[in-house]
Design a protein that fits this description.
About 45% of the residues lie in helices and about 20% in strands. The chain is an alpha/beta fold. Helix 2 packs across helix 9, helix 4 crosses helix 11 and helix 6 packs across helix 11. Pfam families: TctC (PF03401).
């Protein structure tokens, strides 16, 4: 009995080889994801030890270690306003073993403000896993300022163009750009007075050297409670629990003004969906733990979980918002 063999054409042979390679690749990816993590995972914090980003990163690293059954360690890679460490993660092998604990608002601002110093594309160089926390901001004024509401502050600024001094934590800081966004949306002209950090700015605000400031709620709330500054409105969609009785900007008459600082965990672009989803599922449970919620709140952050898709859209929106503010305000950092 003769067995007839059909000759396989060159094109068909290439197609079969390609399909076989793709199938093998998918099997390997799935197998790797199922065994992930099989060694230590590194969570890069792009700031020095001790700050809010570092503290939150260490809380989450400890919890991820328990959830994943493998050690997750924090590595501080400070420099260039956080861009150095972010660049390290963007260039890392996308295998899930190098992650970024990012201050996403600052990264977005740096990418828009200093593109020549940033080695990554905030929208394309990462695979977002989740937003993990948000920090609200608040409008505060010296008690001597004749404005008890945000509407009254806007009216005061319009009556005295260029004379109302707004402090910030420095050129290009989230507080600075929030005040620039306020100028554009409220149609006012105020004087920007940059400081080297929030501490000196708040000291001069309380002393009356400057009249107003947009500051993070955690940094301002003790002074608000002490009566050394007056809170007019928060910059969030919902009222801030730590500032009872303080309306949102929208409630106070400035509709659409929403600003908060976001923290998130990102992997390098190209990380498999299986690994991203594994980390996302772990963070979803972790960020609901009362201990974690309290730890983040102690740093002024509201524990927040998002899916990778929602995190990706939030980062793109953040970059778009600050790019527009920087462009329209012709803001530059010397």
């Amino acid at each position: 009995m003769k067995i007839a063999f059909k000759k396989i054409s060159g094109q068909r042979r290439v197609l079969l080889s390609t399909l076989a390679a793709l199938s093998l690749s998918c099997l390997l990816t799935t197998a790797l994801a199922q065994t992930y993590p099989s060694r230590v995972v590194k969570l890069v914090v792009p700031y020095p030890p001790g700050g809010a980003t570092d503290v939150i990163g260490r809380v989450l690293a400890q919890k991820l270690s328990l959830s994943l059954g493998q050690q997750v360690i924090v590595e501080n890679r400070a420099g260039a306003g956080g861009s150095l460490g972010a660049g390290v993660v963007a260039a890392a092998v996308p295998d899930g073993y190098t992650l970024l604990m990012g201050a996403l608002t600052s990264h977005s601002i740096n990418a828009a403000l200093m593109p020549q110093q940033v080695t990554f594309d905030i929208k394309k160089s990462f695979a977002p896993i989740s937003i993990v926390g948000t920090v609200p901001l608040v409008f505060v004024v010296n008690p001597a300022v004749k404005a008890n509401t945000l509407s009254e502050l806007i009216a005061l600024a319009k009556a005295n163009p260029g004379k109302l001094a707004f402090a910030s934590a420095g050129n290009g800081s989230p507080q600075h750009l929030a005040s620039e966004m306020f100028k554009r949306m409220a149609g006012v002209e105020v004087l920007h007075v940059p400081y080297r950090g929030s501490g000196p700015a708040m000291t001069d605000l309380m002393a009356g050297q400057v009249q107003a400031m947009i500051e993070t709620a955690p940094a301002a709330q003790a002074f608000v409670k002490a009566g050394t500054v007056r809170a007019l409105a928060t910059t969030t969609a919902s009222p801030v629990a730590s500032l009872p009785g303080v309306p949102t900007a929208a409630q106070a008459g400035l509709s659409g003004f929403e600003v908060s600082s976001m923290f998130g965990i990102l992997a390098p672009a190209g990380t498999s969906d299986e690994i991203v989803n594994r980390l996302s599922s772990a963070l979803k449970k972790i960020l609901q733990e009362p201990e974690v919620v309290a730890s983040l709140l102690a740093q002024g952050a509201v524990a927040t979980y998002t899916t990778p898709q929602v995190a990706s859209r939030a980062i793109a929106a953040e970059y778009g918002k600050w790019s527009q503010v920087i462009r329209e305000g012709n803001i530059k950092v010397e």
